[in-house]
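TA notes, week 10

Several of you asked for a full example with nothing omitted. So below is the full record: structure tokens for the whole chain, then the designed sequence directly under it. When grading your own attempts, check the secondary structure regions first.
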């Protein structure tokens, strides 16, 4: 494992170079990450719908390019228990339509966050558990939520802190944004983006307030809520939450819940490799 290594990247360059060539106007950064054969690829910012389209096309193309090279690519959130999970971090900024100036940055306020930015962040913070289903759509998604894993598994926020779920980046007006670290690389970008925008706008409309920013290792924040432990738990949380049906349409929430419960039941009926390894002799 060679995180950020130029040397490690060399061994995958034939495939990764092909990916970059196909998306040369969309890829902003590309580097080897913490897992073996794992790469982080950052897509250049755009409006939400265009970004969702690009993300779906990108994931499809990566799988095809890998197959051409005799390899397999996956965007599973946690493909193996011994290796790190794969995230789908969503960076969000808001600008004035006419002047293009940042509406999130205010150097005169705490953390250089405008009042509007605070409300927007608080909107997402408040629906951490009810909205988990919209960022983690599969049974496997919940295996990524581990302490000290850099996955957004706790209801926390902070400034440029990668141990929180809602990371505020405030180094300058042009870079001021919110990073939602809840989702894995398996998320549906249309659903996740809609949940981000819907909850953020709800926070603005209701002028929701944030608690104090977390500092240090926020995986051990006293009293902080944890992400649902399973797809089934997340589905029931979304179904029972009136707020979930405020940030997305009720029909969409109902449909996502039905799909999630169906997937959970499929998993319950399957015998896993773990069960064979642990219980074959023990039973």
């Amino acid at each position: 494992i060679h995180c950020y290594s130029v040397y490690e990247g060399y061994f995958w360059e034939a495939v990764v170079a092909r990916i970059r060539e196909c998306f040369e106007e969309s890829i902003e950064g590309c580097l080897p990450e913490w897992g073996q054969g794992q790469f982080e690829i950052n897509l250049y910012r755009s409006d939400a719908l265009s970004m969702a389209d690009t993300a779906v096309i990108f994931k499809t193309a990566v799988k095809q390019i890998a197959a051409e090279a005799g390899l397999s690519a996956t965007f599973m959130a946690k493909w193996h228990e011994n290796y790190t999970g794969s995230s789908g971090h969503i960076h969000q900024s808001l600008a004035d339509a006419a002047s293009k100036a940042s509406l999130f940055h205010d150097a005169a306020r705490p953390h250089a966050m405008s009042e509007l930015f605070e409300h927007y962040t608080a909107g997402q913070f408040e629906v951490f558990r009810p909205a988990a289903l919209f960022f983690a759509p599969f049974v496997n998604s919940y295996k990524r939520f581990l302490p000290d894993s850099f996955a957004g598994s706790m209801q926390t926020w902070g400034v440029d802190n990668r141990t929180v779920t809602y990371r505020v980046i405030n180094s300058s007006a042009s870079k001021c944004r919110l990073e939602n670290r809840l989702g894995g690389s398996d998320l549906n970008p249309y659903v996740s983006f809609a949940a981000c925008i819907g909850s953020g706008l709800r926070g603005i409309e209701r002028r929701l307030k944030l608690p104090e920013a977390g500092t240090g290792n926020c995986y051990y924040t006293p009293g902080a809520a944890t992400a649902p432990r399973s797809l089934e738990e997340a589905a029931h949380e979304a179904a029972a939450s009136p707020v979930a049906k405020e940030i997305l349409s009720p029909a969409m929430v109902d449909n996502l819940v039905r799909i999630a419960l169906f997937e959970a039941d499929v998993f319950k009926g399957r015998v896993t490799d773990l069960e064979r390894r642990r219980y074959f002799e023990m039973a």
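The chain has nine helices and six strands. Use that as a sanity check on your answer.
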